[in-house]
Write a structure and sequence with these properties.
Chain A has 755 residues and is an alpha/beta fold. Chain A is 35% helix and 26% strand. In chain A, strand 12 (268-270) and strand 13 form a beta hairpin. Chain B folds into two domains: 38-274, Nucleotidyltransferase, domain 5 (2-Layer Sandwich), CATH 3.30.420.10; 285-414, Tetratricopeptide repeat domain (Serine Threonine Protein Phosphatase 5, Tetratricopeptide repeat). Chain B is elongated. The chains are: A alpha/beta (755), B alpha+beta (415). Chain B: GO terms for molecular function: exonuclease activity; nucleic acid binding.
């Protein structure tokens, strides 16, 4: 291979004649660019803003920016759906700055999902303010804000940029120190709306209800401005999140550059078992080609483990260069300082290839990258477009390569390119009604302002719940109000981020005298990723877990150099607690309700890092079972097949594997948010049953959605299993098979009676 | 049943989503209903007061001037005032004879945040005839505006003397006031004297804990018998409004009363110390006083106190005093006296100060006394100290080494 820099079109021309690639690239698809749609500046746009925009070479707006300005001016909350690099920040900067220039007392809150994004936007906003020549104060307010300037931010900040966590525990419970903000709050900006999903989104919905309650107390009625990536239900999500009516700006006026999509399927290396070459290896090879061609590339991988594996492969490229940092990993679990260095490196070009989990989907400003490789389908269309948007910001030509893994969903996507390029994105669901989440925030709200005996909380009638809190002794009822009456500070007991409230801290003890914390992980993931003898990867370095102190939530790891990774099994038992809804289906029943489940990590396997990914050993995991009360939708059917229990178990496991893969086709969720568990004899009715459950205590609205989707889910699953080219089952359909019986036939039979 | 399961059982209790009713403009203030335990609380010795916002309970105690609290009779407060009046310098803790003084302490239901309520406002003030303690007790949380209003802090001007009030009691009061800002007149900004700050200045390195209780025992000659620990106050108050039984609450009032009495004698004791009235304190305390004066730029007072320490205590105990004295003397341009004091301090001060002293000696010899040989001696000693001290951070050491090597180099050239 020639080591020479090339442009994307030069590279693509080469690839067209490359025999190996020709065979593996199943589809080429080019999306032509689109011209901009412009609108003039609003007539009343403040001269200082005109000046600032002119200084940036902007003489007119895109249509969506103008629409945003006009809606805000008429005090209407709105949500703008904007692709990457469409100048979305003007949708909020302009109306907010305009308002402040008209009324120096006016205030705004900018809410970003992470600290990093707030920092990033602050720089951009400050530059704009400087160009306007006006004296407008904008500050970030988060855990890093120096105590010395906090006072100033509270009293004088026109624009306070923060994150939901800080709002939740650092601002709302101390609202009397923010009187001038709350009395004059005109706008609440929520950037990256689509990230507020699932548990986190449901928590944030409550933080916003609390915020609105406090605004009402101080007599302000702020307008909400939300911006979102493309999802199916932006308006519904925004309204659910903010409990307010929103207008929708769906049509972007920004120009789009030409994008070439390649759909790449790794070659089959084992025909009978339908095993394809590992996507991780294929991605690494493609990334090497791009690296050599001098093309700045971002690679997305779904898990931390895969990120680290790819980084390890790619670092081979730079092994002989000292101090070379041109290939880096980037994911949650790295310390913030480490992440800042990487972000800078991407902007200034010292980093040429970055391998990331979805952490970089968000608007962190890393400048323009030329190419993007997706290791597998990221789980939903919105994410896929966010990832693709990382390549070719503005009008440059961009290359996006989708590399399918062997999972069912991935294979489906590689075979149906129109699914990715042409279909509607998924819904984003939040579920503020989750009782655990609601009660947590009800306490915080009661702490922040007493409820009267006729008050609602958001859209909820909570008087009976307040009665319960009074019985618990945290609030006290007088003739007309419920007063907080406890020395607790409730916001400190509630984290918005992790499903289980306790995280496991990861401690590196490679050098005994210098132990240090290198990351943390939620309890549920830790059961399968940090058990003793697990291989944990961090910045391409392998660590072995030496000791997991489950009581103290500490995992002690030591650096190792081995040629395998580990994969753990989780056994789950379900018990139906309450059936809320039920309907007949093909001789069986479909239900929705509450379940109790007990999950236990059982064994782990050591899997070789070689091409075949051989299983080279295993061991037991000794951890206590994790119990959870959640919501679930289940399908029970009578066993008309004359099979042994063991046969039925295996067939159901295969079918569940295939179903699980398709759920993200319908609802936007992480694969870790929902799971399918088969039970040959469900304890409540002794019938074979598939349970789809939310992996968060109290449920998060996902399985409720599945209740209406079973027909569609089973159809998609059936078609896929039937059409899969393997003979007897493979990772792409029903999961890898060890037994000699043809399980695929059995699964098909089973699905036939269900479908 | 686990907490989690219990909560989830309550799903049924959550009211259905309904359209939020249009909230009508806030009507005028409605007096809250009067709690049913008024009689019980009155029997326990509290007086019910009605004002336009509801009711509040009051307890008042009068102390004659000669009332003894620990080492001091309360009237020694007047001695303290006289001392400040005759002083020929200003001081942040000085009071005028005609200044309206209010010793102030609160009891609260928690430590921070808007959900923390003040349920007791305690004031101690001087009248023509005696000292008067006035405590206002929150009748129940609904009667908060009545409690705050009754404090008259929106009306009168007074110097507020507290223990940790600058960062706790006063901000808490401001928070409660803000929550009632729609109905209450504005809280006045008042001059504040925080005796925790002065205690820190006086007894730094002398007392491990600066809890008011420890200060009482070690310095004020007062020990509490049958005191309620402060952290139980929230539970006690909640219990009192729930059950209506005020017995334990009355003990919290006594706790607050002792706090306030001790504030007076602590003010007196601190003033005496600043005027060197009291002589049973350690060399360290007097040195702290000298340093405090120095930081306030009161050089004559500082030198005066520090010289007494060096005269009255042995060389070891007076090491720090010599050091601070030397700094003052140098500022007075009394170079040879400063040299003597620095030299006297050298063996009895901690390494970081010692390095400072050596540096000062080198500077004085080089620039003022023009004795390069001596300057060189102290420079070498300084460098030796940097290399031999192990518990300093590496980067810090390197920085110092660079600047000291510079000095050494310069001196080499001058010789």
């Amino acid at each position: 291979m020639l080591s020479k820099k090339r442009t994307i079109s030069e590279l693509l021309n080469e690839w067209r004649y490359d025999d190996e690639l020709k065979e593996r690239i199943i589809h080429w698809h080019t999306l032509e660019g689109r011209d901009a749609k412009h609108a003039p500046f609003p007539e009343n746009l403040h001269p200082a803003l005109v000046k600032a925009l002119h200084a940036r070479g902007i003489t007119q707006l895109y249509t969506h920016q103008r629409e945003a300005f006009d809606l805000a001016a008429s005090h209407k909350s709105f949500t703008a759906v904007t692709p990457t690099a469409s100048g979305k920040s003007y949708c909020y900067h302009l109306p907010v700055l305009q308002k402040i220039l008209e009324d120096r007392n006016a205030r705004a809150i900018y809410l970003f999902p992470t600290k990093a994004l707030a920092q990033d936007q602050k720089n951009d906003l400050n530059e704009l303010i400087e160009q306007s020549g006006e004296d407008i104060l904008s500050y970030t307010y988060d855990g890093d804000t120096a105590p010395g300037i906090r006072q100033k931010v509270r009293k004088a900040g026109h624009i306070v940029m923060t994150n939901p966590d800080m709002l939740h525990s650092g601002i709302l419970p101390h609202h009397t120190k923010w009187v001038s903000l709350f009395e004059n709050l005109k706008y609440i900006v929520i950037d990256e709306l689509h990230t507020y999903k699932g548990v986190f989104g449901s928590h944030v919905a409550h933080v916003i209800r609390r915020l609105k309650r406090i605004c009402e107390f101080y007599g302000s009625k702020p307008v909400f401005i939300c911006t979102s990536a493309t999802i199916k239900n932006p308006k519904e999500l925004a309204e659910n999140l903010t409990n307010d009516t929103h207008a929708l700006i769906a049509d972007s006026g920004a120009p789009v550059g030409k994008k070439t999509f390649l759909f790449y399927n790794p070659p089959i290396i084992h025909k009978t078992f339908g095993v394809r070459r590992s996507a991780v290896l294929e991605v690494s090879d493609l990334a090497k080609r791009l690296y050599i061609a001098g093309i700045q590339t971002i690679i997305f991988a779904k898990s931390r483990v895969r990120v680290e594996m790819i980084v390890t492969y790619l670092k081979e490229l730079t092994r002989n260069k000292l101090q070379d940092e041109s290939v880096r990993g980037y994911r949650g679990g790295y310390l913030p300082s480490e992440r800042r260095v990487i972000e800078r490196g991407l902007r200034d070009g010292t980093i040429q290839t970055v391998v990331s989990t979805n952490a970089l989907e968000l608007g962190v400003d890393i400048g323009q990258l030329q190419a993007c490789i997706m290791t597998g389908y990221p789980g939903n269309i919105a994410s896929a477009w966010q990832q693709a948007g990382r390549a070719g910001r503005r009008q440059d030509e961009a290359l996006i390569i989708y590399v399918a893994q062997s999972t069912a969903l991935d294979q489906y996507v590689v075979d149906h390119p129109l699914f990715l390029l042409g279909s509607d994105p998924e819904e984003v669901r939040i579920y503020p009604e989750n009782m655990l989440i609601l009660m947590d925030h009800l306490k915080c709200a009661a702490f922040e302002l007493p409820f009267t005996t006729s008050d609602m909380y958001g859209e909820y009638d909570i008087q009976e719940l307040l009665d319960y809190l009074a019985e618990e002794g945290v609030i006290f009822k007088t003739s007309e109000k419920w007063h907080w009456m406890s020395d607790r500070f409730p916001a400190h007991d509630i984290s918005l981020r992790s499903a289980s409230q306790e995280n496991v801290v990861i401690i590196d003890m490679t050098v005994p005298a210098r132990t240090k914390v290198i990351g943390e992980m939620d309890r549920h993931s830790a059961m399968t990723l940090l058990h003793e003898e697990a291989i944990y990867l961090h910045q391409g370095i392998q660590y072995q877990v030496e000791k997991l102190d489950w009581e103290e939530k500490k995992a002690f790891v030591r650096e190792v150099d081995v040629d395998y990774y580990t994969d753990a099994n989780l056994a789950v038992e379900m018990k139906v607690l309450e059936e809320d809804r039920s309907r007949n289906y093909q001789g069986g029943t479909i239900s929705f309700g509450d379940v109790g489940l007990v999950a236990q990590a059982t064994i782990f396997k050591k899997i070789s890092l070689n091409d075949k990914q051989d299983n080279i050993g295993s061991g037991p995991i000794h951890l206590p079972p994790d119990e959870m009360h959640t919501s679930s939708s289940w399908l029970s059917f009578s066993n008309t097949l004359q099979w042994s229990e063991a046969e039925l178990t295996e067939a159901m496991t295969g079918a569940a594997y295939a179903m699980n893969a398709f759920i993200p086709l319908f609802i936007q969720c992480d694969s870790s948010d929902v799971a399918v568990v088969p039970q040959v004899k469900a304890t409540h009715n002794n019938l074979p049953t598939f349970f789809v459950y939310d992996k968060y205590p109290g449920g998060i609205g996902l399985s409720e959605k599945v209740y209406d989707l079973w027909e569609d889910l089973l159809t998609k699953t059936m078609n896929h299993v039937v059409n899969c080219p393997c003979e007897s089952g493979c990772p792409s359909c029903i999961g890898p098979q060890n037994s000699l019986v043809n399980m695929k036939r059995k699964v098909k039979e089973l699905l036939q009676i269900l479908y | 049943m686990s907490y989690e399961n219990k909560i989830l059982q309550m799903k049924k209790m959550l009211g259905k989503k309904v359209q939020q009713p249009v909230t009508n403009e806030q009507s005028t203030y409605q007096k809250p209903i009067i709690p049913n335990y008024v009689n019980q609380w009155e029997k326990a010795g509290l007086t019910r007061i009605d004002n336009e916002f509801g009711i509040v309970f009051k307890r008042q105690v009068h102390y004659p001037f000669h009332y003894q609290h620990g080492h001091y009779p309360l009237q020694s407060f007047f001695d303290a005032l006289i001392k400040w009046q005759s002083a020929d310098f200003d001081h942040p803790y000085a009071l005028d004879v005609d200044e309206n003084v209010l010793f102030f302490d609160t009891e609260t239901t928690g430590l921070k945040g808007v959900g923390t309520q003040i349920f007791l406002l305690g004031f101690l003030e001087v009248t023509k005839h005696d000292f008067v303690l006035t405590q206002y007790v929150l009748a129940d949380p609904a009667h908060e505006a009545a409690l705050l209003f009754e404090s008259r802090l929106w009306q009168k001007t007074a110097t507020i003397i507290t223990y940790n009030g600058k960062s706790f009691d006063w901000p808490q009061l401001e928070t409660r006031w803000t929550l009632n800002q729609k109905v209450l007149p504005k809280l006045r900004t008042q001059r504040q004297i925080d005796l925790l700050h002065s205690s820190k200045r006086l007894w730094k390195n002398d007392m491990e804990r600066l809890k008011l209780k420890s200060v009482e025992e070690e310095k004020l000659g007062f020990s509490r018998v049958g005191d309620i620990p402060g952290h139980l106050a929230p539970i006690i108050y909640l219990d009192a409004v729930k059950s209506g039984v005020p017995d334990a609450l009355m003990k919290v009032l006594v706790h607050n009363e002792w706090d306030l009495l001790s504030l007076i004698t602590l003010y007196v004791h601190s003033t005496y110390l600043l005027f060197e009235q009291s002589s049973d304190e350690s060399a360290n305390t007097y040195t702290n006083i000298g340093k405090w004066y120095a930081d306030l730029k009161k050089r004559p007072q500082s030198v005066n106190v520090l010289e007494k320490v060096t005269a009255q205590f042995d060389a070891r105990e007076a090491g720090n005093a010599q050091f601070y004295l030397a700094l003052q003397l140098k500022k007075n341009k009394q170079y040879s006296e400063a040299v003597d004091a620095f030299v006297a301090s050298l063996h009895f001060i901690e390494p970081r100060k010692k390095l400072q002293a050596l540096e000062q000696l080198a500077i004085i010899y080089e620039h003022h006394l023009k004795d390069m040989k001596q300057a060189l001696v102290y420079t070498l000693e300084g460098i030796q100290l940097i290399t031999s001290t192990e518990d300093w951070r590496m980067e810090q050491k390197q920085k110092w080494e660079i600047s000291w090597e510079k000095r050494l180099h310069r001196l080499g050239n001058k010789q």
